[in-house]
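Weekly puzzle thread! Below is a chain. First person to post its structure in token form gets bragging rights.
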Amino acid sequence: MKIIYKLPKTNREKHLSLIDNKWVLLKEPKNTVIAILLSIPLMILCTFITLQIIKIFTDISLGDYGISINPINIRIEFNLFYILGIILLLIIH
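Winning reply:
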């Protein structure tokens, strides 16, 4: 982010002051690919929570989302137009 947006460098005195006041630096991923891979479990968790909240207010099943769970296998169907729409939404966003 600092390279892309050319953010100003940190103030060394302020940085040391914050460290002395027991502030903790955030550990950031080294590159974008690692950041995306590390965010996948959070995406799955948020999706599960969102579906559970929706389920409270409406009568929607996982089958409505193209997911069917049988005791033997799990089947997920993807529609090409939905995938292209999601990619386009990510690009626009």
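Puzzle host: Confirmed. Bonus trivia for everyone else. The two ends are 17 Å apart (CA to CA).
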